[in-house]
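[agent] plan:
  1. take the single chain provided in the ticket
  2. run structure prediction with default settings
  3. attach structure tokens to the ticket
  4. add a short note for the reviewer (M.T.)
[agent] executing step 1
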Amino acid sequence: MAGISDEAFRKILDNNIVANHWLISMVAPEMLARGEGSITIVSSIGGLKGSTVIGAYCISKAADMELARCLADEFGPRGVRVNCIAPGLIRTDFAKALWENPATLERSTAVASLKRIGEPHEIAGAAVFLASRAGAFTTGQTFVIDGGATISGGA
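[agent] step 2 finished; step 3 output follows
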């Protein structure tokens, strides 16, 4: 963080926070008018931890979680729920550089309780829950789906 340029920091914030704000601003008015709706922001476990490598990213993902809490408080009285999903390492194209590198994959999975990375369908279930009637009493929450990476000491 100490060496990041303002331009690089702003780009990360724009991509990970401001873009969410814009998208929510486009869909929320109709949901609020209807008196129901569900918004799910995809964050990251990076928002729960510090990092000497991807600090700006982690800051932006923590801000996504707070965005969900604040909007849940604001929209809740009008029937609209807002939540976050915070995945760990998932086998996606976005994270391909991490899981294709054997050393990085080993480091990432060694500390996770399940000792593996996640698959996209394992995140989809949480999104379906949050969007469905089953999740109708859930708002302002962050669902951590990381195979135990944030709770385990790896031993």
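[agent] step 4 note for reviewer: The chain has a mean pLDDT of 94.
[agent] ticket updated
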